[in-house]
Amino acid sequence: MPYPLSKLAYGLRCRLRELATPREVYELQLAAPHLAGLQPIQKIVNIDDVVIFEFRNDGLRLSLHKKKYEYCNKTLFRLTHVLAFIYVMALTDLDVIHGQYLLDVSYIAFYHSHITLELIKKLAKSTNDNVGSIEFKKCRIDLDVTLDAITAMFGNIAICSPGSNVKIYRPKPEY
């Protein structure tokens, strides 16, 4: 059962804001814009650029095609153009992206990644309805990731391209 924010003591609302991710703060402020304790207003930086998230052993790398933005873990970024993922594996944690980025993109590409249905579900939850194209290049795609499943999660998708050199991942049967 949800707990009303207005019933939460002022000090606890302040602490909630400190502990929340930038996206959570933004959503709290949308729900209760004038409630004391949730200030200052969450800053949003719009990025109209090609944004690349690269997952390596040493962590997440973010790169931009055109210009540099000063990174701050308390800033919420709204991505409004192209989003690319490189080396995403089945166990990759996308919560880092979900907590700090609003994904208002129209095009998503995956390169050298392992595509699972759970990954697609998490991504669909983090994006809006503007995604019109998804492309997979040199990816392993689980059998349950079907065109029907992708179009069900991304309502306005027009193009879903498996790209070149796609390896379909067939899990070993369990006995």
From TrEMBL:
Organism superkingdom: Eukaryota
The protein's name: FERM domain-containing protein
Annotated organism of origin: Panagrellus redivivus
